[in-house]
Amino acid sequence: MGSADVSIAATALAISLVAFMTAFGQLLQQYFATAEGFETLYTTPELFIASGEPERPEQILIEGGFNSRAATLAPAPQPSQHGIRQSNELVCWISLLHQLHLAGARNGTSDTPGISLPALVFQERSWDFQVPDVVRPLAVCSVSDIAILGRRLGMRWKDFRPYDGSLKAEGHFQVMSSTNVRSLGILLQYNFTWKESWRPAYRFGMIRGLTKQKEERYIPSTRADLLGFGIISGSAGIHIPRFALGTQDEVMASLSLLDETGESTFRLRALLQQNSAYYLRTGDLVAMTMEMARLRGRSHVQVPAPSENMSGFSTSPKGRQAFRLCLEKYVSNGNYAMGPQTQVVLSACQHLSSFWKEWETDAHDPAEATEIPMRLLPDYLDAVHDHYDKLKPWIIHQKGPIYRKILGAHIRHAIFRENGETSLLNFQKSSPDYEADIEAYFAIWPAILEDLSSGKDEYHAKILFDTWVVMLFRACCWNACHFFVPGERVPSEFYGSQLPVYIG
């Protein structure tokens, strides 16, 4: 090989080496720049249910006001101008935030005692650690809280199987549906299908295929949210623990808890063997065993129905009237030994019937009406609430768990009486006879008293009758301030679950 060929080969090798080093240097520069200098960060919300008091640092309540919207980066959408259509490529949690703000504007201020509101905190994340299947920034919420938010927005959970990655809710022109994303978990999509241009025609029922839906404004409190899981919060003051009524098995277990003799559970099991579609009336039972869920000064009264059959004398104005008339008759006759609290209850019933016609007058149930009627005025509800609270100290200061013992005896003898409200014949009736139920309750009191007197605890007959009457009256007050909205319930085991749900 000549010297010229060697020079050419050496020159080519040098050029190749320089090109390789240049390319390798550029590659290293891009790698270090991406890893250290140009990381993509983004901020998304974590949604949850919070009380009026701050529970987490930097939490922002979703209240619907201008300041709340600005702080949550969810300004009210403005109509498009000059024919420019808004993008439909936005993440769906922006639309969800807007609907939560609209609902929050109707819930009341955060300083209302006992209120719970949707809230969020912003979290900063790195796109470099996002799973490949995700192409949008995701908000996050827990399974428990998304169940509550969906119900508060007026949706019904048609499918709720988080462990299978399957969630579906719909109602009031809203749809939630989920998919399972590999390496991530549950990804929820939210869609609001309503268009403001439909409103004039929709108001008069002129849009084919769309029916006017019933208004739903749920009480924004934890006790009300629990009912959507079929859970009754109970009351520590009267020795009633938390229990559930969402399924037939839960009703059976709860009866065993409230009536420790097991007689009520045995009778219910026999009824279910005769008719598997039988549902026990639980409207009175709920009202007798939990504290008020409503918020003072507010007109909200709707709560999710925790069980399939929410009938009961205390849910009806006619039932409350029958209770007053029966109480007047038995006080006048003096057939039963009774103490001063019975007269207190009678005076309260007479006061409510005289000053508030809503107490004993039939009106449209707000769960069945398209608009909230006037009977939900806060003054009326607060007046009922006052009578309820006035009797609370007397009940709490009674000797031992007397209230719970009387409740168990009432369930055994009054609710499960022979040919009574629990019979299959009465279950099949379209309209319950609450007047007959109340008459039967008072007539069967001697059997309840005999049952209570046979135990090891000694109570005076007057105290027992007073407590029983107070229990029935508390149920009347509770159901006058709450109206059950039927609908599917979320399984009780998911209340409080922190399983994450990502919202795209």
Give a written overview of the molecule:
With 504 residues, this protein is of the alpha+beta class. The protein folds into two domains: 41-214 and 491-503, no CATH class; 237-485, no CATH class. Helices cover 42% and strands 14% of the residues. It is built from 18 helices and 13 strands. The strands form three sheets. The chain has a nine-stranded mixed beta sheet with strand order 2-3-1-4-13-8-7-6-5. Strands 9-10 form a two-stranded antiparallel ribbon. A two-stranded parallel sheet has the order 11-12. A hairpin with a 2-residue loop joins strand 6 (166-171) and strand 7 (174-181). Helix 10 packs parallel to helix 16. The longest helix has 35 residues, at 3-37. It starts with a helix and ends with a strand. Residues 365-375 have low confidence and may be disordered.
Please summarize what this structure is.
This protein has helices at about 5-35, 65-70, 90-105, 145-150, 200-205, 220-225, 250-260, 265-275, 285-290, 315-335, 340-355, 380-390, 390-395, 400-415, 425, 435-445, 445-455, 460-480; strands at about 40-50, 60, 115-125, 140, 155-160, 165-170, 175-180, 185-190, 230, 245, 300-305, 485, 500-504. The protein has about 500 residues and is of the alpha+beta class.
